[in-house]
Amino acid sequence: MPELPEMETFRTILSNQLKGRPITQVEINREKSINLTPSLFTAQVSGAVITDIRRRAKHLIFQLNNGYALLLHLMLGGWMYIGNDEDNPDRNKQVILSFGERKLYFIGLRLGYLHLLTSAQVKDKLEELGPEPLASNFTEETFRERLSKKRGTLKAVLIDQKFIAGIGNCYSDEICWQALLQPERKATELTNDQVHVLFHAIQPVLTRGIEYGGYMENPTYKEDRKTGGYNHHLLVYDREGEPCRRCGSLIKKTEINSRKSFSCPECQK
């Protein structure tokens, strides 16, 4: 599932290529991927101009010049591609937005969605999300205060979108590795120093993920050489049996709350 760095990569690419352009045509191939009838959705979206693209947690918000916004959550298996009739993946596309000859294909929206909402509805939809971990007001004091109320494993805490927004399975493991902590450790077991180290691992890991284009392998457009670049720089996630980049011990794979998790058995305590 795309996490904060993947969605931030999408946001940057789509902003550069689609911001300020009118939507000339709408094609709905799966009604469950949208929240209105296809005719009403199409009527509201066709002709609208994307004035801004923002990210909140794992969501993208396409702001339209007619006062509405498209709220996207890709969920598991979802991705996007910018191309045309000759250049696009041989996959089922649930929604297609055209910008003249250029098209934005929404692929794999079986669990995800693209909803047309008012600004107030978007605010309500995202109201329960936790703070953005890369925001300037996300301080260690804020983190400590929120963490003091949690009783689960670090894995469960970090992927809780009401606790911190945008972190999922991959980056929770990466953060724990960076902080020298096992993801199955209980939040209540951490010392003050360990909380300090954990907090200061979050932003560098996520920033590094953004820098390398996230870990999703599918390109976003034909000449895309950045998306998925983090796959070559993973610290621990999906590296079972490979040597730890810090101590050389073999990475182990475990299951925590029905989620796969990767860690070093030696240098993570």
Structure characteristics:
269 residues; alpha+beta; N-terminal domain of MutM-like DNA repair proteins; Helicase, Ruva Protein, domain 3; 2 domains; 4-stranded antiparallel sheet; hydrolase; EC 4.2.99.18; lyase
Descriptive report:
Its EC number is 3.2.2.23, 4.2.99.18. GO terms for molecular function: 8-oxo-7,8-dihydroguanine DNA N-glycosylase activity; class I DNA-(apurinic or apyrimidinic site) endonuclease activity; damaged DNA binding; double-stranded DNA binding; zinc ion binding. Its cofactor is Zn(2+). This protein folds into 2 domains: 4-125, Alpha-Beta Barrel (N-terminal domain of MutM-like DNA repair proteins), CATH 3.20.190; 140-263, Helicase, Ruva Protein, domain 3 (Orthogonal Bundle). It is α+β, with helices and mostly antiparallel strands. The chain has a 4-stranded antiparallel β-sheet. A 4-stranded antiparallel β-sheet has the order 2-3-4-8. A two-stranded antiparallel ribbon has the order 9-10. A hairpin with a 2-residue loop joins strand 6 (93-99) and strand 7 (102-107). Helix 6 packs across helix 7. It has helices spanning 4-18, 38-45, 119-125, 140-147, 154-158, 169-178, 192-211, and strands at residues 25-28, 50-56, 59-64, 68-73, 79-83, 93-99, 102-107, 113-118, 252-256, 259-263. The protein contains 7 helices and 10 strands. The chain is 27% helix and 21% strand. It is globular and about 55 Å long.
Short description:
The chain is an alpha+beta fold. It has 7 helices and 10 strands.
CATH architecture term of the largest domain: Orthogonal Bundle
User: Portion of residues in helices?
Assistant: 25-40%
CATH structural class of the largest domain: Mainly Alpha
Order of helices and strands: HEHEEEEEEEHHHHHEE
Instruction: Outline the low-pLDDT stretches.
Output: none
Helix and strand content put the structural class at alpha+beta
Give the overall average pLDDT: 97
Using the coordinates shown, work out and report the CATH topology of the largest domain. Answer: Helicase, Ruva Protein, domain 3
Query: Over all CA atoms, what is the radius of gyration?
Result: 20 Å
**How many structural domains does the protein architecture include?**
2
Q: What coarse outline follows from CA principal-axis ratios?
A: globular
The largest pleated sheet is described as: 4 strands, antiparallel
Strand order of the largest sheet: 1-6-7-5
